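Fold it.
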Amino acid sequence: MATEVKVPTLGESITEATIGEWLKQPGDPVKADEPIASLETDKVAVEVPSPVAGVMGAHLAKPGDTVNVGAMIAMIEAGGAAASPAPAPAAAKAEAAAPAPAQQAPAAGGEEPVMTLSPAVRRLVLEHGLDPSSIKGSGKDGRLTKEDVLAAATAAKDAPAPAPAAPATVPAPTAALPEIGGRKEERVRMTRLRQTIAHRLKEAQNSAAILTTFNDVDMTAVMEARSKYKDLFEKKHGVRLGFMGFFVKAACQALKDVPAVNASIEGDEIVYRDYADISVAVSAPNGLVVPVIRDAQTLSVAQVENTIGDFGKRAKDGTLKLEEMKGGTFTISNGGVFGSLMSTPIINPPQSGVLGLHRIEDRPVVRDGQIVIRPMMYLALSYDHRIVDGREAVTFLVAIKNAIEDPTRLLIDL
């Protein structure tokens, strides 16, 4: 008896997803609740668990197919029977004696089987110019993981240079491009997440009157506090003391002083809030995602750092939940971790503001009539000018600057 595998409920307003990859192939044994496929939605990747224990049957959709919630995408065969008819006893013995699954052996006609790669792994393989079939996978069922690809890339980088005669083995340029030789193009279908990012960014530009204002901040006080207390902080709270905790708390205080930056437009009304749900941009394999720190105004710096650390880890693992990325009232994006000096971030509708953080670098500044070197960072506030005017934007950034340059203000609510 076979059991149907259907697309699970994916969250409010989400009615469809894309098959990312099959984690189990027909004939593979599966356990109850074991992931057998991954789905890509507009926001995150979601794993589909097996409803029962048995053997993986036929795939009813292939990677890249769009499927609706509730649609049947596979079958799980009961007991030890595979989806195909039971083999004869002699054939069964021969199959049992085979050293590897059929899909791992060369296909008929001498063609190699197609290796299923996750989007993150595929991207790394292309970036480093590696042959995935030459890399041994350490993941489930021998699948390649990001760590496998990075290790292979490091090994290739450290390998000795090829002998001088090696260039003679390089194939000649194709006839199609004789004058430039070897130029290639690849067309890769956009993931649902990337399509959604593109749509929302364009929507923000079309619907909001976006303006950006800048300031800079002296990071000396925060860096000294971090250097002085980081060991005690990590010992007590189990997480490293970073800069985001200070900026989130400073933003909460500034949002209270300038509520328009924390508001949004709904129809012909402006919605003001007495709470701060801070969206923090974190890097995921398929792009930036923005999980939300709920009621950040009530959290300590340690609680903020713990929450951000958890978000970052689960973003890389693809295990963030849809509800964790909904309902933010203000966003903080830290491009400084990638080396950005200055940027004009785009707001995340229906929010009215986003704070961009950038890299810290030593610059000459004037203090008490003397030119001194200080660790400085540029701050950027992009805002919806329909609801936030210039005075409010500048006031908000100055409040952030004052709180970071004198963190005591965060303790006494100044």
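The chain has nine helices and 19 strands.
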